[in-house]
Amino acid sequence: MMSDLPLDQVKTLLAVVDEQSFDAAAAVLHVTPSAVSQRVKALEQRTGRVLLLRTKPVSLTESGKVVARFARSLAQLEQDALTELGLGSSATRTVSIAVNADSLATWFLPALARLPQSHGVCFDLQREDQDHTAALLREGLVMAAVTAAPHPVQGCTSHRLGRMRYRAMASPAFVDRWLSSGPLPHQLPAAPVIVFDRKDDLQDRFLRGLTRRRTFTMVRHHIPASESFVDAVAAGLGWGMVPELQAAPRGDALVDLAPDRPLDVPLHWQQWKLDSPALAAVAEAVAEGAKESLR
Amino acid sequence: MMSDLPLDQVKTLLAVVDEQSFDAAAAVLHVTPSAVSQRVKALEQRTGRVLLLRTKPVSLTESGKVVARFARSLAQLEQDALTELGLGSSATRTVSIAVNADSLATWFLPALARLPQSHGVCFDLQREDQDHTAALLREGLVMAAVTAAPHPVQGCTSHRLGRMRYRAMASPAFVDRWLSSGPLPHQLPAAPVIVFDRKDDLQDRFLRGLTRRRTFTMVRHHIPASESFVDAVAAGLGWGMVPELQAAPRGDALVDLAPDRPLDVPLHWQQWKLDSPALAAVAEAVAEGAKESLR
């Protein structure tokens, strides 16, 4: 079935997904928004399925995800072929990767910087929680992911990168105010906590390991940026689970609340089974970087 | 019409939007997912409108946005009333704010830290592009926003915070390799560039001001985290528009490509017209912090 899909229509669908709207896709493809709309509609008629929900931003249906994933593999193979044919001098190869925020803030970028610039690879990074990056892979929105999920998404390979170690930390002043008058398991559940966003359950996991109490009544701040998260902990807004890699440079500004209770998050590299030199080079650089920085 | 809406149903809708799924909302409300589903359905029957698209994550329809916004105002007023009645000792007041990534990475968090901890305010921050934070306000997903949009969203007040100054920057090695053999307007369009995400048009705006060329063929990296963005510029992956506030601590690692061409982004504080002491205290702290850090 797939081979019967007109390539211009398939690529148009991909552009709409990447650019998040018909108008933006039209600008990138140098056609009118109405041409974009007609191509997507034609593709839907041909497959007999609704592929795209016309929400803001647009979102793919289950069938749409299958087609988008096919389209992205195809674009990658085409880019690689052009490069091998020597037609890729001005053509660059985009490698789209979903990566968790804490990896992006610490070891991931230095790993990517290992790649020789001559590769001409464009990095299209998407930031997601490590428990949710695999979903982006499954939906065909990225071709590789740093993920907590060890089991390969269908059509992908999985490779262990190492463990990212987190520690429950707070500022010295915070410890004085909230945690100095009794044992940690009794005091911590009532103290203000900082979480990254609603997908971040590291703080709750730490609390469940520390205490048997089920419900916690507390101030919860949501600070959805890695460096700002650590800034907020250092400023005394709350306690939080901080990656060791980010805690080290802060020195005495952060206190380890439970040195015998680190929390390790195993990270894996998953990528599509694609015979793409660009993707292979990125995977190798990431594996090397992880080996140096993760446990 | 609004006053006829059952409060438990309205609050349930809000929980589904905030927690992004029926299951997560059920866990927060301590009811079954089926009860959540029934309440939302009942609310839809009562209003005669579809309020929620059952996508992953769920998304609000236009009618749903109106109801969600009503619900959030209501929750805030209720929290404030409980606090005034002295019933709010364990009740905390959540202030949801949309803020652009560069503000979050620089002046915004120190501004929030000015608030006395005794306020018991929970910050629920959402990170968005400064050109898109106003949309979150309009959709009722947040009650205040740091935004580039000066004109108040309906039902909101708008207050000027100051200008955030950006400069086109690159690493010294990058300048040697890509920009040393001719004038900037000729060379920069062909050099690799780093952009934050697909909503970030600062780099394109700078280029449009610098050169008359319409199309640019170039390597574009997407690095969607403020500190990592500056790290990537310092590592030589590309040039990019860096906030002065973030460039200063990097010293010689960054070169200003066009000292006579800064790009200023005016920022505004917009918030709902709500007689809420918690929101007023936050607004005051933000205004003071902006006054010190912005132009």
Automatic annotation (TrEMBL), chains A, B:
Electron transport keyword on record: no
Domain HTH lysR-type: 5-61
Secretion signal span: none
Statement: the UniProt record of this protein carries the keyword Oxidoreductase: no
Family: Belongs to the LysR transcriptional regulatory family.
Record-given protein name: HTH-type transcriptional regulator LysG
Gene source species: Amycolatopsis vastitatis
UniProt-listed NCBIfam families: argP, PRK03635.1, PRK13348.1
